[in-house]
Design brief:
The protein is mostly helical. The protein has 13 helices and no strands. Helix 1 crosses helix 13 (234-262), helix 3 (64-95) crosses helix 7 (148-158) and helix 3 packs antiparallel against helix 10 (188-203). The radius of gyration is 24 Å and the shape is globular.
Length: 267
């Protein structure tokens, strides 16, 4: 009989085979996911393809600089607005007695469970009624209308020691001072991770910029601009490769924040 706490000889011989099979599956999965991206980068980052996408565009079509500027503006707007509103909403739901909070919070996260196609038409009608079609505001605000950030930050703030807020109240700190001096500093890792995540979310918008700017082609983004080019052309491949750059850079810079900020969160 094998000693307690030590694997049997048969199990010990099976462990290397199981480890090899596990690694083989992981390697094959990585190859299947990364091979198309590698092929795209190889075809899209050639001098000929980059020259075509950087060339002067035909009349009525935005150039590469305009596409990049619009994409960065939307991505930064989505990241800043969504993170700020999510933090304020989570702060209110956790530390204040908000009437109807049990109903408000489920409504905030409800859009997460609805397909984007089911929300496009009513969103367009609302944006049109507000006069925001073909504007940067109309491109940014509808993308921020989900409760993902509130869901994550609510879990983060619930883990804060209640003694901190009680000590702040005893010291005479009001809600705003407690928010600035306690809540924000303790939420920096999560906020940094959310900023990176929402930046990529705004950058990767494809369908919404196409439908929200029907008469303003200069508002097209790098991702939506791919639809203006012939599928499979060198220019489209180059633009697709360029569109992958900023999300990869953001992930490389914010990877540590994402791992430390979002991993411990429990709703």
């Amino acid at each position: 009989m094998a000693l307690a706490g030590r694997p049997s000889a048969r199990y010990a011989r099976a462990m290397p085979r199981a480890t090899f099979a596990d690694h083989l599956v992981l390697i094959l999965g990585c190859v299947a996911m990364l091979a198309p991206l590698a092929l795209l980068l190889r075809a899209g980052l050639t001098p000929e393809a980059l020259a075509r996408v950087a060339a002067a565009p035909p009349p009525g079509r935005p150039g590469l600089g305009t596409l990049l500027a619009t994409s960065f503006l939307i991505a930064m707007g989505v990241a800043l607005v969504k993170t700020s509103v999510s933090l304020l909403a989570a702060y209110a739901l956790v530390f204040f007695r908000v009437p109807g909070a049990s109903v408000i919070f489920p409504l905030l996260i409800l859009p997460l469970f609805l397909p984007i196609e089911s929300r496009i038409l009513p969103t367009i009608l609302v944006v049109d009624a507000l006069g925001l079609l073909n504007t940067y505001t109309g491109l940014i605000l509808p993308v921020t209308a989900t409760g993902l950030g509130t869901l994550i930050l609510r879990g983060q703030l619930k883990q804060m020691p209640p003694e901190l807020m009680e000590a702040a109240r005893i010291d005479g700190a009001g809600p705003w001072r407690a928010f600035v001096d306690i809540v924000v500093p303790m939420s920096v890792p999560v906020l940094a991770a959310l900023l990176a995540f929402f930046f990529v979310l705004g950058w990767n918008q494809y369908l919404w910029p196409l439908v929200a700017t029907p008469s303003a082609p200069d508002r097209a983004t790098v991702v939506s601009g791919i639809a203006m080019l012939r599928a499979g052309s060198q220019a489209s491949l180059a633009l697709a490769a360029i569109a992958m750059g900023p999300p990869l850079v953001v992930f490389a810079l914010a990877g540590r924040w994402i791992a430390t900020g979002l991993a411990p969160i429990r709703a």
